[in-house]
Design brief:
Blueprint (H helix, E strand, L loop, with lengths): L1 H9 L6 H11 L1 H5 L20 E7 L8 H11 E11 L1 H8 L11 H10 L2 E11 L2 E10 L2
Bound molecules: S-adenosylmethionine.
């Protein structure tokens, strides 16, 4: 549903969750076949992973679509090993432009909102840094799972 709504607001089609999943399946076919990668089609707030089993977390362009930042952050914290690092990246200027079109729930797109949810969920050393890749500046949020 959110993909349709976002597509309307942006004036171009956007991928659904199933669409993202299919793209990932195609791109990672060999790694999936060799069992180096497992894909889970699930809500970030209810992941089919055991407590304290994940070494590292990376997610990109995601948190601003979650209905509840605290539930998402708490679930990520639950599955991470003590001291494990989480990194998420975004292009804040782009996100702010899209948010101004009213397609994201409330003010969740603001990095401060997600960083507060991370701290409330037991992450420490939560910080955001500007990063550069060729001519693109983007932001990276880092957080360490404290347990
Ligand atoms: C803009 S796409 C970004 C996809 C990819 N990470 C990238 O940067 O190319 C946002 C993704 O968040 C996913 N998403 C939204 N709400 C979610 C939730 N509650 N749990 C898990 N994934 C969710 C969407 O299905 C979609 O795949």
């Amino acid at each position: 549903m959110w993909a349709e709504q976002l597509g309307k607001q942006l004036g171009r089609p956007t991928r659904s969750l199933a669409g993202w999943l299919n793209m990932a399946k195609k791109q990672m076919m060999e790694l999936i076949a060799s069992k180096k990668v497992t894909l889970h089609h699930c809500d970030v707030a209810a992941m089919p992973l055991r407590d304290s089993t994940v070494d590292r977390v990376f997610h990109c362009n995601c948190y601003y679509f979650w209905p509840d930042l605290r539930k998402g952050a708490a679930e990520i914290h639950r599955v991470m090993k003590p001291g494990a690092l989480m990194v998420t990246t975004l292009r804040l200027s782009r996100v702010a432009t899209i948010a101004a079109k009213g397609v994201m729930p409330g003010e969740n797109w603001r990095p401060e909102a997600y960083m507060a949810a991370l701290r409330d969920s037991g992450f420490t050393d939560v910080r955001m840094e500007d990063k550069q890749d060729r001519n693109i500046t983007f932001q990276a949020i880092f957080a360490t799972a404290f347990k």
